[in-house]
Amino acid sequence: MKASPTNSKSMFDGESWFRQNIRGTLQLKSKTIKIVAGFTLLWNLFEGFLCENNANVSTFEDITQDLKSTPKLEKAVSKSITFYRARYVQDQEMKYIFNGLCFRNGDRKEHVKSVLKGDIFGINDKVLALLIIAYRIRNNLFHGLKSVYNWDDQAKNISEASRILSIILEAKGDYLIR
Question: What is the DSSP string of 134-147?
């Protein structure tokens, strides 16, 4: 019997290639690679479905403007805000690690700070801050600022960004299976 084009033996295994050819990848946990791959998949869906292939802070403002709050959304947002607050804020001051997000002009860094410090309370404002954080993680990851050498240390951070993307896709998407 002839092998089908979708036969798993004929499919390219990106993780194997990655581990065999890129320095620093042998020590990475498989779970970490799965988390990065999952984030990539979710970002692709998020940017394609909700950003019309043009992700930027202005687009995120549009997405959050008419976002309807639900208990599920509130719970997920609260969990993510708690995670990022613990990661980036100490005694109402931003930790040094916050600078690692590498904000650019127009990325509304002060808005993100205010949300994480608890000075802004609205659900739409919180979601906007979380989308901006996910965007910064995306840019740092996709443009090589997050080296494979620190991916294991970034796994929880990237996973939390994926959670937010998934919950926003669920909140905004009539293209989802219900």
Answer: HHHHHHHHHTT-S-
Instruction: Please state the pTM of the whole predicted model.
Output: 0.90
Distance, CA of 30 to CA of 167 (rounded, Å): 24
Q: What is the pLDDT of residue 3?
A: 44
Question: Residue 23 and residue 42: Cα distance in Å, rounded?
Answer: 26
| pLDDT, position 100 | 93
Return the pLDDT at 91: 95
| Residues 107, 139: Cα–Cα separation, whole Å | 12
- Other C-beta atoms lying within 10 Å of the C-beta of residue 28: 19
Task: Enumerate residues 6+ apart whose C-beta is below 8 A from 29.
Answer: 152, 155
Is 169 within 8 Å of 123 (Cβ atoms)? no
Number of Cβ atoms within 10 Å of the Cβ of 54? 8
Q: What is the dihedral of CA 139, 145, 150, 152, to 10 degrees?
A: 10
Low-confidence ranges of the chain (pLDDT < 70): 1-8, 145-146, 174-176, 178
* 3-state SS class at 74: helix
Q: Residues 6 or more apart from 61 whose CB is under 8 A from it?
A: 128
Delimit the domains of the chain by residue range: 25-172
* 6/3 Cα distance (integer angstroms): 8
Q: Residues 169, 46: contact at Cβ < 8 Å?
A: yes
